[in-house]
Each structure stands twice: as structure tokens, then as C-alpha cells.
Give the backbone structure.
Amino acid sequence: MTQLSVKGLTVCTPEFHCIAKRGEELAEIEDKVDSVIEGIDELAGDGLLTDRQRMDLTRTLNYL
């Protein structure tokens, strides 16, 4: 168990904080990847990337 309840208060253990921090880090990474994919889509929309290039870049980012 990663949390202990004492009289209605929740005391978080170091394990809980580690898991929570990792989740926050992953969410930040996902936001950055989504932002990059949006930029790639904009470049493709402006005609600076071919559809094939856009698909390859997007696929690579989603693979990471």
C-alpha cells in the first residue's frame, strides 16, 4: 500500500511520491509530443512537408 490514512488524513509515502512524479513527467512528455505533432501538421498544411514525410515523422514520435 502506498498511502496511509490516519483520522481522515492521507500520509503519502516516498513510493507514492515517486509514482506521482513519474506520472507528471510522462504527462509533460506527452504534451510536448502532441505539440510537436501539431507543428508537423502545420508544416504539412503549409506545403513544407509531403504527406509521406508528415506520416513518417508522426509515426516516429508516437513510437517513442
In short: The first helix runs from residue 14 to 45. The two ends are 31 Å apart (CA to CA). Residues 3-63 form one domain.
